[in-house]
Structure formats: C-alpha cells, structure tokens
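Notes from hallway chat w/ T.B., transcribed later so I don't forget. T.B. wanted the structure written out for a chain they're using in a teaching module, and asked if we could keep both sequence and structure tokens in one place. Agreed to drop them here.
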Amino acid sequence: MVQQQDKKVRRSRKAVVTPLAVEANVTLHLEHGDGIRQDVPQALRWTRKAAGLGDGVAAFNLALSYEKGTISRPNLRRAEHWYRRALALGFPPARMNLAAMLANSSRKARLKESIALYRASARLGDVKALLFVAYAYEVGRGVRKNLKRAIHIYKQDV
C-alpha cells in the first residue's frame, strides 16, 4: 500500500509541459541559433504567438526586442505596448522597464505614471525603484522637488 502511494506522489511532482512553455523554448532556440539554424523572424512569430496566448514572459521578451531593436529598428511605442501587456499578464519585471521608458519622456503625465510604477515596485521591496523615487524628489522630475522627502527616502532601510 505504501509503495503505491509513493508512486502517485512521484508522478504528481513531474513537470507539466504547457504549450506556452514549448513556444518559449522554441523561441529561444530560434533566436539564438542554439542547436538549430538561427531564424530571428521565425522566433518573432513564436514569441508573438505565445504573448497572444497570454504568456507574460513572451510579452516581456517581445517588448525587450522592440526596445533594443533586436528584431528590427527600435520601436518604443510597440515596446511600451508589450511591457504594459506583460504587466497586465502578471509579469512584475515589466513594471520597472515600463517605468524607465516613461521616465525618459518630457510629458508630465508619463513622468507621473513612471513615478507611480516605481513606487509600486518599491512597495514590493525593489531597492532600485526606491532610489528612483528618491532621485525624482531630489531633482523634481515627475513630482514636486522636495529635498527633505528625498533624504528621508534615501535613508530608508529596505
């Protein structure tokens, strides 16, 4: 009896391979030519497919590709779209990348949104985000300049 239960437990611990995991794996191999001929356009198709099916990591990778220009010329509008999609799909690293893109803007609304995103990351324990918020208060970028508050944030223990 005990041996049969052990077998059941072992079977339940096996990794489940989902279609999204397969697509992400295929994408990486195609993009980098790992074990197969490198085919960046095909990798892009697989990444788009996975992102369209709700894979936050694929959406993030697509955003990175558009931002860095690895698939074509850099396209910041598309990169922003895919960072937002990755964040909506529950992939937290997209928050910092989106915040950094918005922080490079000269429009007040985008700067305020970047600070809100940095604050959200800081609340989750991201020290880098906390430093960005402090710096924003120090120089008055996206928020009203407030050296007292900036110093207070710089002194915080995380």
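Follow-up for T.B.: The CA atoms of residues 136 and 142 lie 7 Å apart. Might be a good example for the class.
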